[in-house]
Amino acid sequence: MKKRWLVAALSVAMTLGVAATSYAAGWKMEDGSWIYESSSGAVVVNEWKRGADNLWRYLDSSGRMAVSSWVDDEYYVDENGIMVSGGWKQLETNGNYNDEFGDTGWYYFLESGKVVRDTWKKIDNKWYHFDSNGTMETGWVDENMYYCDDDGSALIGWHMLYPPEGEDDYGSDPFDDNDGKHWYYFNSSGKKYVPADGDEYGEKRIDGAYYCFDSNGAMQTGWVNIGSESADTFSIKNYRFYGNDGKCVTGWYSANPPEELSNSYENEVDWFYFSTNGTPKSGPEPGEAGSGDFTRINGKTYLFNNLGNPVYGLQRVNIGNDEYTAYYFDETTRTAIKGRVEIEMADGTRATFHFADNGKGTSGVYGGSLYYMGLLQKAEDGSKYEPVTIPGHGTYLINTSGKVIKSTSGVKAADGTKYATDSSGRLTKVDGETVGDGTWRNATEPVWN
């Protein structure tokens, strides 16, 4: 009996001892704040714990549940102490002033609760950039290669914007009426287009048209010299012209010449023709043109000089084997003229010319008159008749109006010389004597511009 009592007493003592040293771990309210006690009864500090709702909360260094505060500068707990995760949160910027939100900014927290910082993040199919503190950025970001709109999303496509600070010196622009703003193009990732490293300008084809951008990505208008440093950069071939919409001009366009070349131009405003890729048509220096330098546009013939202008007036054109002839280009249309026409030559005198269907100056007999390099040949005043030699064609007898005298057994010039011709008007006899290949007056050349 005594032994049985001792066993029971020992059992009770042991039960009380366990009860005195074992606790139910969990959340408890203490002095108006939540704490978390471990199973040993100790207050948990500097540690994350889940609540009954399975959401995370943080116990600070005093053991109290943190609210509305950052944890380890990477996590944030809201006013209920719950860790923010999987979404946006507008918070104070820790002293980092933000123009749009005053002293607050937007932050994005991953599902893990960690804040996104110093990187790009794609959210709902839009790209956002966050600074080293995790604040969502707006305006020019990431070395001014991207622009984030007021909502923080990176722009794509065309946008007119103020340039980044220090990139606003663009010089003269014939179409600059945008109050200091410039057009920029951003690709599908939000990155703006800029030329290859080291290039001052670069072209990009967008929706079938060519546009030009400077080294900062600003779209250009007007004349732009896109020539390489190794080339003669001050050649019209290296220039392109971009309209008010930024598109590279093709076809005919009337404009002031490039400023760097303006001293070389006769006219303040002149015509240019641009190919499908925007290259201006150009040709040789004046007087050096050959028949291979002609350009056919819409069925009409043009000749461009080294400045990119379609020439006009009487032009000397090389036709091979050290030979040359005349072409005439209308001052208004700049096209090669064909047929008979009155022209004022460089010395101010007016003369009659004839040009074939291809624009080439006629040499030989046409329509009963004699021409050389297109210029009508006439006997000298007072001579009545005169033999004139056309190189490669022979010697013909003409009168003072340029008419060829054909099939005559003899006509007398003012000095009494008697000439005879064949059916084509070629000289056959002089004063009854048969002539050979003797030298007569050479045909008169046009007076070149």
Short description:
With 449 residues, this protein is mainly beta. 4% of the residues lie in helices and 36% in strands.
Descriptive account of the structure:
The protein has about 450 residues and is mostly beta strands. Helices cover about 5% and strands about 35% of the residues. The strands form 16 sheets. Strands 32-33-34-35 form a four-stranded antiparallel sheet, with no helix packed on it. The chain is rod-shaped.
Largest sheet: 4 strands, antiparallel
What's the total helix number? 1
- List unreliable stretches of 5+ residues: 1-20, 95-101
Q: Percent range for helical residues?
A: under 10%
The total of beta strands comes to 36
Q: Strand portion, in percent?
A: 35-45%
Q: What global shape is seen? A: rod-shaped
Strand order of the largest sheet: 32-33-34-35
**What does the average pLDDT come to?**
89
Oligomeric state of the chains in view: single chain
Task: Give the distance, in angstroms, between the N- and C-terminal Cα atoms.
Answer: 147 Å
| Helix-strand makeup class | mainly beta
For the CA atoms, what is the radius of gyration? 46 Å
State the main characteristics.
three-stranded antiparallel sheet; mainly beta; four-stranded antiparallel sheet; 4% helix; 1 helix; disordered N terminus; 449 residues
Layout: helices, strands, pairs:
Blueprint (H helix, E strand, L loop, with lengths): L1 H20 L4 E5 L2 E5 L9 E4 L5 E4 L9 E3 L3 E3 L9 E6 L11 E6 L9 E5 L2 E5 L8 E3 L4 E3 L8 E5 L20 E5 L14 E6 L2 E6 L7 E4 L13 E4 L8 E5 L14 E5 L19 E4 L2 E4 L9 E8 L2 E7 L9 E6 L5 E6 L8 E3 L2 E4 L2 E2 L8 E6 L3 E6 L11 E2 L5 E4 L5 E4 L2 E2 L6 E2 L7
